[in-house]
Structures are given as C-alpha cells and as structure tokens.
C-alpha cells in the first residue's frame, strides 16, 4: 500500500495536435539525451517500440502490458519505471486506453557516452566496498518501483524541458542525468541486497549489516556495533551505505520498521499500539507521526482501509 511515486505531471496533448492515437510522441532533444512523451488514446495491442540508446521509461497515466525479449509479460502502471537496453524491442499492449483517458509515459533515451562517463567517475571517486565491485547499471533489474530520490531527478529533467527558456538547458539536463544514473544504480542495489542479503552476507559487509538489521529490527539498533560488524568505522560505514543505496543506515532501519508495522496493522487482532512496539518503535506518538508522513495516512486509517478492502473482496 505504498503511495505511487510518479514523475511530474505533463499535460496531455490537445486532440487537434495529435498525429496518431497510438503512441503519439512529443520530443525534447539535447546533446546527451532525448526526452520523449508518449500518449495513446485508444486500445491497441503489439505496438513495437525500439530505441538506439539505453532508455529509462516511467508511467504517468493509465496502464500498459509490457512484453520484453525473453521476459514474462507484466503490467506497467503509474509509480513504476522500466529500463530497456539499446536496440531492444518493446512490444506493448494498451488494454484500457481511451480518448478521454489516455495512457501516458515518458521515455528518456540516454547516450552511452554519458553513462560510461558517469560510471567511470563513480568508480574513481566513490569506489564500492569490495575491490572486485564496480558501479554499473544492472539490466536484469528492469522493472522498478519508484522512490522519491530517483523521481526527483526525473522531475528536474521534465521541468527543464517543459518550462525552462535558457541557453543552458543542455547543461542543466546533463547534470540531472548524471544524478539520475547514480540514483538508478542505488535503486537497483537496494533491490539486489534486499532480496539476496542472506546469500551475500557471508562475503559482503553491507549485506551482513542488512542481515543483522533485519534480524533485530524490532529491537534497538546500535549503529556503532553494526559498523564494527561490517569491519568499518561508523563514519565509513554510513558513507559507504549511503553511496551504495542512496540512504543512510538509520533511514533504512526506519523504512524496514514501517514495512513491519504495515504487516502487523494488516492483522485484524493487532492494535495500533501493538503494531508500533512490535515493529521496534519506542514511542507511539512518534510512530503515528512518522507513519503518516511516510505513507500519507495515519496507522488507524491504513488499518481501516485494509479491512475495507478485505471486506469488499469477500463480497
């Protein structure tokens, strides 16, 4: 029940300006990328789309069904992004698109030269924890649930493209793109370490730290001991953790506790107070405020909405 984190809204095209009802395209072209805005105003199937460059896409409105080479088809919804390699065919279905409810998606085609430059810079200035590791975009993690840090960079590119009137637009976009590439890699790293921390814990200090956090999430976390377990000073541990994942160990602990609290709140016989302390929060007021800030609703409302969904499904 996470809030969908979508890029900045872009107005749909007036009907008279549409050149086609299926994947009508507006483009903003720069030295190192091209921002495309695609709209589809009628149902369609097996629409093919290919880019010569690496592409980061993100849904704004409606629903697509994506068919990527060698992968199982999946629903593509607002709050999600998909990355596609150069010259990789996307076959797309639009099962719900209508004239007054179009599907809208951005596709950001990025030059390989800029990607390589950013990776080289990160590997030189901010090397990863293990010598054998290197910064890279993982093509296997192609379907992404958006986070605010990643989408903030996309928003800047959209704002520059649709609002800025300056000769420095290419420079602004270039800077935002470099950060976006880094945020994308951090997002992918979160996915890898969250899903595989147990396999990685024996040889990776950050995975070992995550394993400890997860095993003690309902207890008080001692970050000095956590850093020591990862064989780092506290300062180095916080620095490397944030570089790898885009947030600090303290922010990671908070996110894990919120997810655990949601699991408890979904239980019919679990009270708000029980969910608070079972998830490792020490103060009910702080828990309520934090939960509302991060999820957009109070714990009591979250629980009520979940119960209504269960009841609705049962009927």
TrEMBL record:
Residues 207-305 form the HTH araC/xylS-type domain. SMART domains: HTH_ARAC. It holds the Pfam family AraC_N. It comes from the Bacteria. Gene3D superfamilies: Homeodomain-like (1.10.10.60). Keywords: DNA-binding, Transcription, Transcription regulation. InterPro entries: AraC_XylS_family_regulators, Homeodomain-like_sf, HTH_AraC, HTH_AraC-typ_CS, Tscrpt_reg_AraC-type_HTH, Tscrpt_reg_HTH_AraC_N. Transmembrane segments: none annotated. This is HTH araC/xylS-type domain-containing protein. It comes from Marivirga lumbricoides.
